[in-house]
Amino acid sequence: MDSQPMTSNIPAHSNSLRRERPVWWRCYPLYWQSFAQGSRDLLRLPAQSLPFVLSLALMLALFLTIASLSRSLLVQPIPGIDKIGQIQLLEAKVDIGPAVMNIMSKEMLPGIQQALAGPGEFSFLGFGTGKLKLAQQHDVITIEANAGAVANLGVPLILGQPPIEANNRHEVWLSEALWQQLFAGDPNIIGQTLQLDEETLTIRGVLAHFVGHRQAKNNQPLQLWRFYQLKDLGPLKMKLTSSSNNLLLYRHPDARPLDTAAVGEWLTNSKDTTAFKAMFSGMNMTPAISQQPYLTWIQGESATLALVLLAVAIVLLVITVLNLTNLCAGRFTSRQRDMALQLVAGCTIGRLRGLLYLEILAWTLPALCLSVLLALWLQRLLPALTGNLFPIVHHLQVSGVDLIVLVVVVGILTSALSWPLVPKSLQHQLQPVLAGSGKGMQQHKGLSKTVLFSQLGLSAVLVLTAASLTLSGYQSIYTKLGYRLSNAEYFNLEQSLDLDDVVAASKAAELNPKKAAAEEKMRHQAWLELQQRLQKKLPQHQVLLSTGLPIHSRFFAENLVIPPQNNERMVLTSASEPSFHQAFGMTLLHGRWLTPADAEAANNLQPILINEQLAKQIAGDDLAAAIGQSLTKEDVSFQIVGVLQDVKQYSNTANMYKVLRSAEAFGDIGIAIVSAADLSVDRAVVEQTIQELPNFGAISWFNLKEEWAGYTKQSRLNFYLISLLTATSLLLAILGIAGIGRLHSHQRRFELAVRLATGARLKQLYWLVLAPLLPLLAAAVLLSVWASNQVLLRLSVWWPQLETLPLSWQAGLVVSLWTIAALACWWPVRQALRADPLQSLRSL
Amino acid sequence: MPQQQHQTAATNQPVVQVSGLGKEFRQGPIATLALQDISFSVMPGEFVSISGPSGCGKSSLLHILGLMDGYSSGDYLLAGLPTKSLGTDQRSQIRNQHIGFVFQAFNLIDSMTVFDNVALPLRHRGLPEKVVNEQVSASLQQVDMAHRLSFYPAQLSGGQQQRVAIARAIVGKPDLLLVDEPTGNLDSKNGDAVMALLTQLNRAGATIIMVTHDSRYSACAQRSLQLLDGKLVASVMREVA
């Protein structure tokens, strides 16, 4: 018998009670019990645990994938290369009107280096392609660089010797992937030779995979590095070609940007650049040196997309958590008594929270593991699925940092799930449960209403915002193209005239323009012959001579004098048969179409069509006023007869459409074959026809839909992703709302059963359950209209073309969302009211 | 049956001292007085029953005494300690160390074994598992349920479940045992057995306050408090054999 006086057991001061509190870890059996209970329920209650684990895993995988993508892209876009912030990308830009071209070439490097003697280091990387001959032939990426580039950028050396200035062009370094895949990681490979494009090269080392270019095609894993010495470089070449595959990088140890003024000085005043400058000054163009952080260039527009996607992923995760909170509320409603008993037995609120946390953790942990597996799978799947179409996904790399972030997120989510389930005290809620009189009592009423409101509100914001985004995206991708996305093939050919004839013709052209015209006529005749033969063989298709398709990856530009200021500007030009524009469904806004008679018009008054952009430059907002005005080029004058709607590819560029004339230069011509929607061109027939004619060489094919796909790939990625995420959020919200409807009707089943048993009409019961929920749904949807307009306002800073939806659309969407939400609430109530009231009462 | 040790009446200080206690439930503008001006005290080792018609406030009073609910007016001293200003965690602490509960509906946790149910208060105290094992075994032996320690509640009869519930209530050697209609869900045979057990515990030194509406069982107590419409209308002392 314990004879200790009782009063000594109850301390008279509350502080001493605190000191008596056991250390939390000494209660470990309770924590273990909770975790074990959760694990048992995971298997015992698949109807609850499967939706919980799968939905959380999917959303976590989505979050992890997008977060990894964003981190890779925003923080470390080039794995293995640190201090990327110190590197600047240098470009020599020339404004040619329709576009700004980077004409940076490796031949510029010695001059720039000389102009900038200092602690900074330059790296020049030229990306190209080559064919590597082993047992089979492999397409590889070739990277030509100066010897210091590897050390300067910090590309890790895996095997062999680092490249040095003394290396020659016949030595090669393999990428790690190429070494592993094609040479099975043979460590004795150093000193062996390989064949690249007929050249024999000696292997000197293996470097890590380099993903330092913005275009995914240049970041392919099979790479071969070759190094050149500055002294081997020739004089600065005169050429006006885009060098988007060339990177000139400058790294200063103190991250100082380059002194572009000094480089500009070199470009302007050095005698090395005289010939180079002369070429541009003849075209009224001045190259200018500009620089930007390498990181910014690598990120490009994808950075904005990544941030938006990350925001959407977080919202989706929140909606999922709200759903799961509801699921947990439903699950723990039946466990109220257990919680009450824990409290009665002396459990503190904090510890009870910990116990519930562990019980829910037993469900979130499998979701976490599953999500990591899914994300790793997506990391491999997405680049394989999209190929080079969407470079952004090539940046995807789930790292340890991402996993730590995920674990923290899961910890917080578990906490968020368990937090609202714990009662503040034993009072009110739990006493009736302990007394066994809590039948049909509504638990977590406030919680479920908060969940309902936030869930619908958030997803309505997402849906309304995304509706604007998808509408703008849809129009720009599919409807407001300025042409019909028809079945159309295009090809151009090499005309293999005899070399001596061509040389003779070229020389003659300088001395005798008539001979040159005759040469052109010869070419023209050959093309007309080909066109006629093809039209005969393909009677159901339209065969048209043209310099290209309505959108085309190659384009031609001319310097023209443009009214009203008579300034010289570059204009994109195309020449085609008069029926070309109608055949492709281009839209005439003002004036008339071109006609066959226009081909015979005088040389100093050639009729042309122009696009909206050029019309705006000429006549401001009154586009029709541009008709009748003339553009000039030396002794040729072009008269505007019509204005066409902008073609999406060139929406910000000035375009001019000429009629193909017999005097036109036919070196750039090709044939477009336009087919009905259900027909396609048999390329074999075309190629066979070409072979029947002399003087035609290799054929290059283009396809309108492929060109469209190339130009719209980023927009389509945005469009698909946003549509997918929006649909997901709406689906999640519907499931969540249905879950709340189910919970409400389930908790009130006793009351409903009693009312049914006493003769209540179904309509009254529907109203009873739904009445408190419907105004909440309406408030959530209305609030989301305001919120989505605010979000769109912020997003329009990034995407100026973004427009808010018309009011009628917004109203329609609001009503639709409310109706969908109301139906989602109504369905489970209907199911609950189908039960036999007496059966329900017996089961309670 | 081995005897469980309990705190004994070694002092003149009441375990429970209630004076002018009132409890008001308010729902919007409507206020309901569940308890009015209740005053009584319970000395260590005493067995007190509280009885009265349904809705008279018996369970409300028991919940207040068990620190499961607060009160609106008056004072309640638990072993001399004012309880009005105690925080939630302090109440939990005191319940864990000094109060044991037995409910009409047994209220065992279905997902736990008999052993785990009984061990619950000790584990919340953070006692080593060895001590927990010893005390749980002793407690289960005291209620004659030691042979069922790995059973789940659903595998036990009502009487057995109530005996496990009593084992859980006494396992921490509480100073005060609060018992709410312990026989309400039992047949007379099991009810008698449970009452015999409670009487035995009281004889071993346990202070018991029991709510019951069954006059047969209230007679087991040394004193019976009669409630009517939230007021204490009578306090009857009995000679118990």
UniProtKB/TrEMBL annotation, chain A:
This is ABC transporter permease. Signal peptide: none annotated. It is a multi-pass membrane protein. The keyword Cytoplasm does not apply. Residues 311-427, 726-837 form the ABC3 transporter permease C-terminal domain. It comes from the Bacteria. The chain crosses the membrane at residues 50-69, 305-329, 360-378, 398-422, 451-474, 719-744, 765-787, 807-829.
Automatic annotation (TrEMBL), chain B:
Signal peptide: none annotated. The keyword Disulfide bond does not apply. Residues 16-240 form the ABC transporter domain. GO terms for cellular component: plasma membrane; transmembrane transporter complex. Belongs to the ABC transporter superfamily. Macrolide exporter (TC 3.A.1.122) family. SMART domains: AAA (SM00382). It holds the Pfam family ABC_tran. Keywords: ATP-binding, Nucleotide-binding, Transport. This is ABC transporter ATP-binding protein.
